[in-house]
Amino acid sequence: MSRQSMRANDPKKVSGELFTLTYGSLVAQLLKDYENVDDVNRQLERMGYNIGMRLIEDFLARANPAFKLYLGVSPSIGSWSPGGDEFSVVLETNPMAEFVELPDHCLGLRYSNIMAGVIRGACEMVQLEVMAWFIADQLKGDNVTEIRVKFVKRLEDAIPAGED
Amino acid sequence: MTTLMYKFHQINLYILTDKMTVHSLYILSKSGGLIYQHDHNIPTVEHEKTFSYPLEVKLEVQNRNIVVSYGQRDGIKVGHTLMAVNGMKVTGQQLEDGRDAMLASMFYPLYALACQLSPEQRSSGIEILEADNFRMNCFQTLTGVKFMVISDVKQTGIDNLLHRVYEIYSDFALKNPFYSLEMPIRCELFDEHLKSALEQAERLGISNI
């Protein structure tokens, strides 16, 4: 059975378009409410952070590749920094932004910033403090969508006994 | 001459054989607080008997339950638990509020202590604790949440059960937007799925649930 038809038969899967539309209207509403793109970026990141803190358990319980599982894409990892504490997650296609065109007045908007938040939230729950931010976005004319992740420190006092 | 009037009450004793296999489940948050506790009792063999006063069986309190201590008769054996009298449920002696939480939280430092006592580095802490009439399995996730199941020594497939409980936790507690992290889990869907997972584990008693 092909993957597509498996998806269609799985009652737990919703249409990807419903997801992109929902996320799109969320971003649009945030833009209306905050009017300032920086605030919207910050809110999206914060939402992602809250999602990541919960999603990490789901990911650990199922042990599947996370991007494949939640977004249906497989990013490549690369551009490691010489110190080995920084890398890039490169997405050839961004399923969240499939139908999006950024209007001129919000070029500073990091549309998929929720993803950066998810990465930060998820890592924090496994005692890794990281920074995650977008450095390339297809919505802004780049070839790929690229998230940079930088390791900050291990959260020593949060490490559960037996995991150090 | 004075006569004493005795009032005879008919008492329906509803007696249960003690054959539970998974006794209880605890979930500790990563900071060590008890966020979920479930006592799992499945009546397996039940006897309903009408007794008149005085009772032919002797009862006593054992392990929070009222059990038969003397007077084996009509299928009712020593060790059976009294479940109901005249249709009223006997809940046994409940621990006072907060004692469960205290007892469960006591496990947290024990676990940490075991890690420190280990002669080898990176010890996993207590995973199984076995006594002659029960076994406790503990599973700690990478994030520090602990799942503990107390079961009969004969019960198998506990590892799978713990993993299943982890999945249920990540689905029905964490994906519920109104559940806040580190807080006691009060979600009906979570309860339901957990119960069916426990029942399934008991029914199969084997690896695939």
Automatic annotation (TrEMBL), chain A:
<dbReference type="InterPro" id="IPR024096">
    <property type="entry name" value="NO_sig/Golgi_transp_ligand-bd"/>
</dbReference>
<comment type="similarity">
    <text>Belongs to the TRAPP small subunits family. BET3 subfamily.</text>
</comment>
<keyword id="KW-0333">Golgi apparatus</keyword>
<dbReference type="InterPro" id="IPR007194">
    <property type="entry name" value="TRAPP_component"/>
</dbReference>
<dbReference type="InterPro" id="IPR016721">
    <property type="entry name" value="Bet3"/>
</dbReference>
<keyword id="KW-0931">ER-Golgi transport</keyword>
<keyword id="KW-0256">Endoplasmic reticulum</keyword>
<dbReference type="GO" id="GO:0030008">
    <property type="term" value="C:TRAPP complex"/>
</dbReference>
<comment type="subunit">
    <text>Homodimer.</text>
</comment>
<dbReference type="GO" id="GO:0005794">
    <property type="term" value="C:Golgi apparatus"/>
</dbReference>
<keyword id="KW-0813">Transport</keyword>
<comment type="function">
    <text>May play a role in vesicular transport from endoplasmic reticulum to Golgi.</text>
</comment>
<dbReference type="GO" id="GO:0048193">
    <property type="term" value="P:Golgi vesicle transport"/>
</dbReference>
<dbReference type="GO" id="GO:0005783">
    <property type="term" value="C:endoplasmic reticulum"/>
</dbReference>
<protein>
    <recommendedName>
        <fullName>Trafficking protein particle complex subunit</fullName>
    </recommendedName>
</protein>
<dbReference type="Pfam" id="PF04051">
    <property type="entry name" value="TRAPP"/>
</dbReference>
From TrEMBL, chain B:
<comment type="subunit">
    <text>Component of the multisubunit TRAPP (transport protein particle) complex, which includes at least TRAPPC2, TRAPPC2L, TRAPPC3, TRAPPC3L, TRAPPC4, TRAPPC5, TRAPPC8, TRAPPC9, TRAPPC10, TRAPPC11 and TRAPPC12. Interacts with SDC2.</text>
</comment>
<keyword id="KW-0813">Transport</keyword>
<dbReference type="GO" id="GO:0005794">
    <property type="term" value="C:Golgi apparatus"/>
</dbReference>
<keyword id="KW-0333">Golgi apparatus</keyword>
<keyword id="KW-0256">Endoplasmic reticulum</keyword>
<dbReference type="GO" id="GO:0030008">
    <property type="term" value="C:TRAPP complex"/>
</dbReference>
<comment type="similarity">
    <text>Belongs to the TRAPP small subunits family. TRAPPC4 subfamily.</text>
</comment>
<comment type="function">
    <text>Core component of the TRAPP complexes which has a function of guanine nucleotide exchange factor activity for Rab1 GTPase. Plays a role in vesicular transport from endoplasmic reticulum to Golgi and autophagy. May play a role in dendrite postsynaptic membrane trafficking.</text>
</comment>
<protein>
    <recommendedName>
        <fullName>Trafficking protein particle complex subunit</fullName>
    </recommendedName>
</protein>
<dbReference type="GO" id="GO:0006888">
    <property type="term" value="P:endoplasmic reticulum to Golgi vesicle-mediated transport"/>
</dbReference>
<comment type="subunit">
    <text>Part of the multisubunit transport protein particle (TRAPP) complex.</text>
</comment>
<keyword id="KW-0931">ER-Golgi transport</keyword>
<dbReference type="InterPro" id="IPR011012">
    <property type="entry name" value="Longin-like_dom_sf"/>
</dbReference>
<dbReference type="GO" id="GO:0005783">
    <property type="term" value="C:endoplasmic reticulum"/>
</dbReference>
<dbReference type="Pfam" id="PF04099">
    <property type="entry name" value="Sybindin"/>
</dbReference>
<dbReference type="InterPro" id="IPR007233">
    <property type="entry name" value="TRAPPC"/>
</dbReference>
